[in-house]
Amino acid sequence: MKAITYRTYGSPDVLEYGDVPEPKLGPDAVLVKVRAASVNPVDWKIQAGYLDGVMDAVFPVIPGWDVAGVVERVGVGVTEYAPGDEVIGYVREDLVGRGTFAEYVAAPVRTLARKPAALGFEQAAGLPLAGLTAYQALTRALEVKPGETVLVHAAAGGVGSLAVQIAVALGARVIGTAGEHNHAYLRGLGAEPVSYGEGLAGRVRALAPEGVDAVLDLIGGEALQLSPGLLAEGGRLASVADGAVLALGGRYVFVRPDSADLTALAELADRGQLNVEVAAAFPLERAADAQRLNAGGHTRGKVVVTVA
């Protein structure tokens, strides 16, 4: 099968497109014919070696954790899926090796859910990691309740745009930080936008004079540091971007595969409460270009790669 691989840590320049063996299929996995996969910052960070201290890499590595595709065949112990089923998955295992930037991926059942009918394959591929990150942060780390006010930093990005929609679906009022060029987009998602930069705290306080109930930080740095001062009494803080949140009394969130959570996201999409913005799509052989665009950090929504 065709796949993207890298044989050593490095920049997008180390990516190669070519033939690799089709993955073996374990008893609790399904072989998914990949239709699309999405790029996440963790992909190129792993590729650069930043996570070498916590995750073993089996070279050559096929990058990618997100997938949308069609079940080709199932392992001997699988009863949940059958050939022809359309699925999405956050296919993260305990080591890095066989990812989703390929024509086929062997995906453990625990990483999958049925693809929402309301989304095309490109959109659906952008949902798993980003959607699960937002969903788990909002529902578990922050325990957002109806009627609360939530501040989302970097609200127009891949995770942020999904977090806004999920928080709205949970019944929350949402304030989202973003560049002015994305304010109309955020209003369309149901958020009240505020601009980055000097004076940010004052702009948030103008909208929520008594403080916000929860802050979801997706950018770290200065935005995170000023966040505790924006919380109402008893307010909660979580970050997926900066471990410094722990010293500020907040929660650090690292997403994990969860079929039930992924199914909940798919149901939100099918009810029309969750949409995935696709910033750009690249054919598999141009995965390096997709990584470079994602690493630039200024895209609205998701960058995906497609497989013919």
UniProtKB/TrEMBL annotation:
Limits of the Enoyl reductase (ER) domain: 10-305
A Pfam short name: ADH_zinc_N_2
GO molecular function per UniProt: oxidoreductase activity
Record-linked CDD domains: MDR_like_2
Alphabetized InterPro entries for the sequence: ADH-like_N (IPR013154), Chloroplast_QOR (IPR052733), ER (IPR020843), GroES-like_sf (IPR011032), NAD(P)-bd_dom_sf (IPR036291)
Record-given protein name: Oxidoreductase
Source lineage: Bacteria, Bacillati, Actinomycetota, Actinomycetes, Kitasatosporales
